[in-house]
Amino acid sequence: MAKAIGIIETKNAAPAGGHYVQATTYNGLIYISGQLPVKTDRSHTFSESFEVQARQALNNLIEILKAAGSEPAQLLKVTVYLVDVENWPTFNQIYAEVLGAAKPARSIVPVPELHYGYSIEIDAIAVIPEI
Question: What's the average model confidence in pLDDT over 61-88?
């Protein structure tokens, strides 16, 4: 039998800025909406370095995972949208540092621009471990 669709929202990650939620759950999976490097108080980091932006976007992702009862080791697929592919090596380094041993499937998609002038956006699908 299918489980109900759930909504995940946490104050430890940037709040949704439009007609969407931070994440939804269904049948033991969590679908995390694209996370821009927005801080929890809705302040923006677009004028900060790529490294600061990447860490903030990843932090938002991880806080949403935690709110759903999951963790980086449970990530199945991560999609990263990068404005400047020159940042790819820097992102790889930060990503490996933040995720540690977790190595989910991943795509990096070069894009010409992102909302508010950000350099990165990350979305993901993860498993919610059974208790």
Answer: 97
User: What angle do the packed helices 88-99 and 50-67 form, to 10 degrees?
Assistant: 30
Half-sphere exposure of 127 (CA within 13 A, CB side): 8
- Burial class for 127, CB neighbours closer than 10 Å (0-12, 13-18, 19+): middle
Domain CATH number, residue 44: 3.30.1330.40
- Please report, as a single letter, which amino acid is at residue 27: N
For the entire predicted model, the pTM comes to 0.93
> Using CA atoms, how far apart are residues 52 and 92, in angstroms rounded to an integer?
14
Q: What is the pLDDT of residue 47?
A: 84
Domain count for the chain: 1
CB 53 within 8 A of CB 88: no
